[in-house]
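User: For my dataset I need records formatted as: sequence, then C-alpha cells, nothing else. Please produce one.
Assistant:
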Amino acid sequence: MGLADFVGLAGAFFYLFAYALLQLRFLTIEDGRYTLLNVLGGVALIYSLMWNFNIGSLISQVAWLIFTIIGYTRFLMEKRRKARVVPV
C-alpha cells in the first residue's frame, strides 16, 4: 500500500466517523466539526483518486465536497442574518 492508499483510507474514515457522530447525536449537521470531517474526507479521497483514477468516484467525491461547502456556507449566512435581526 502506498501513500495514496493510506490517504484514501483516512478519507473514508473521516466520512464514516462524521456520519457515526451525527447518527449518535454527538454532532449536529450545523456543527463545524461535522463539516470539517466531510471536507477532509472529500479532499483525502480526491487525492487518492489522483493515483488510482476512477471517474465515477471522482464525480461523487467532488459533488459531495461541493454540497458540503454550499450547505455549511448557507448555514453560516442564515446564522449571521438572524443575528442581525433585532427583536422588537
